[in-house]
Amino acid sequence: MQNTRFLVRSAQSQLQAARPLTRTFVSSRPRWATSTGPAMDQYNKRSDAQKPQSEHPKNDDSLPNFVEGKVGQHEESRGEGSRAGFGSGGKSHATGESIVPEAVQKVAPEKLEKALPEAVHPTKGSEIDPHPQQNIRTLPSRCWHAASTSPRRRNLLTLAIETSCDDTCVSILSTTNRHNGVWADLLFNEKVTAKNTGKGGILPTESLESHQSNLSTLLESALPYLPNVSDTVGPRTVWLGDGSPVQKPDFISVTRGPGMSASLGVGLATAKGLATAWQIPMVGVHHMQAHALTPRLVSAMGKDGHDHHGHSPNFPFLTLLVSGGHTMLLHSKGLVDHEILATTTDTAIGDELDKCGRLILPKELQADTPDTAFGKYLSAYAFRTPRDFASWRVPATRAEEIDKPVNEFGWGLSTPMAQNRELAFSFSGIASQVKRLILARGIAGGMTEMERLLLARSALGAAFEHLGSRTMIALENLRAEGIQIDHLVVSGGVAANTFLRYYLRELLDRRSFGRTQLVFPPVEFCTDNAAMIAWAGSEMFEAGYSTELGCAPVRKWSMDSHQPGGGILGIEGWIRTGTQ
């Protein structure tokens, strides 16, 4: 038990070492009881003639009545009410006809979530079309379900939902265009993780039930963080259950894929219901695109250690996405222009490290870990403090990668694909080597604690050496083509690993890429979160993209815009606004 507490504390200390001094997490509020409030009563008593003309559905391109604020600025209690109202009467701004599904029209706003299963159903996943431009429906700039994006809106507000795997996430993000760049304020950002501990990994059914149980609760907690509005009631106002008027989001951002279809369907169906009820657009976000853009969110929030705000790093840059479900190296040339340079041919690096963790970590330690991210605890077990990183030799040349001597115990783990320069990842062989060694040691009488510690370091080293080797080959190829890469963005859950951060920096410096800046998001933005979905949705919305409400979740969705399928824009359901 004492070793378990040390292991968990060690993991927490390594995570803390990578955290910024300022946090962006907003604490939750108490649950509310349903009420009406005097402001709502007074509003409902007015006749149509007394209501401002702005309340009637129409096409409105005016700037939002936005209240700027930093994280934690909206801490004052708004009472104990809790449901969002309707701001636009449920009618199309273009035709005046009702577009709200009949099931939603028949219920009061406070019963909206009960009607969502009747009004919105997840549909069958669509196949990727090899002609992406045929999948984008173009609309004029003045259209109800895609707000004007040209010229750029000064202020934008979005509510975001992320349910691609086992984390249920909700956030509220506001962005402001100023003379010195884009500023972002994260008003709300929370998540709940499914209880998969002790079940050998992530179970789709457990994750689905967690989304169904927790998403509405998170949304209830989030609504009071929408900015307050003035006494002037208009189509951009929604009412909480206590009668408090708050600003309606400009659009809903939601993860559309890739991910587990059933989990994606929960978030997407809820987002469709909110977009329909509030009569606002929806942006279906590519999950991995959101990871790639996360450093630009951090920059806009001023959390990157610089005084300026804006989109940083600027395109183009190299993106290394490393998580439990994905491993890919991208040349990111623009918002929707990404070229995959290397991707995994078998398992993702995060999944492989979790497998190694289950094989190497003592069983008593595994039993007391609070989650199934065994790769994280494997790193804490192997390197008790960051000072231990220097004990691992970072290869200065390709020859050192290939020629790996055996250790004092008579074995060594080989780096995958060390003998070739193919741009691809393959991690499955690492866990296979670990398993064979542990079985052999079991027959021979067991493994000492020192040998187990070295095995943990070797498994991590082999995985990161392979990751770094392919990244160096890509950088060398681009340099030979005359392409200078100034930034290497590393994002995804494995990017939180402090040993990986140390290893890549050492490798770049030793291989004559010392001028290439490594960009890692803060630890809380490496794993799945809705803040990155909100930011990616905001960038897509500013570029003129929204998503049809009849869209389906997409289990597999390539980011490569240079391959058949068309990348991010290669699926059905996109709407392009502002052009004809």
Automatic annotation (TrEMBL):
Residue span(s) of domain Gcp-like: 196-535
Obligatory cofactor(s): a divalent metal cation
Keywords: Acyltransferase, Metal-binding, Mitochondrion, Transferase, tRNA processing
Domain of life of the native organism: Eukaryota
Biased composition (Polar residues): 1-16
Record bears the keyword tRNA processing: yes
Region span, Disordered: 1-100
Molecular function GO terms recorded: metal ion binding; tRNA N(6)-L-threonylcarbamoyladenine synthase activity
Top class in the EC scheme: transferase
Subcellular location, principal: mitochondrion
KW Transferase (keyword) present: yes
InterPro entries noted in UniProt: ATPase_NBD, Gcp-like_dom, KAE1/TsaD, Peptidase_M22_CS, TsaD
Basic and acidic residues compositional bias, start-end: 43-61, 71-81
Record-linked Pfam families: TsaD
Entry EC no(s): 2.3.1.234
GO biological-process terms attached to the record: mitochondrial tRNA threonylcarbamoyladenosine modification
Catalyzed chemical reaction(s): L-threonylcarbamoyladenylate + adenosine(37) in tRNA = N(6)-L-threonylcarbamoyladenosine(37) in tRNA + AMP + H(+)
Cofactor note as given: Binds 1 divalent metal cation per subunit.
Subcellular location: Mitochondrion
GO CC field: mitochondrion
SUPFAM superfamilies noted in UniProt: Actin-like ATPase domain
Assembly information from the UniProt record: Homodimer.
The protein's role, per its UniProt record: Required for the formation of a threonylcarbamoyl group on adenosine at position 37 (t(6)A37) in mitochondrial tRNAs that read codons beginning with adenine. Probably involved in the transfer of the threonylcarbamoyl moiety of threonylcarbamoyl-AMP (TC-AMP) to the N6 group of A37. Involved in mitochondrial genome maintenance.
Family: Belongs to the KAE1 / TsaD family.
Annotated protein name in UniProt: N(6)-L-threonylcarbamoyladenine synthase
Source species of the chain: Cladophialophora carrionii CBS 160.54
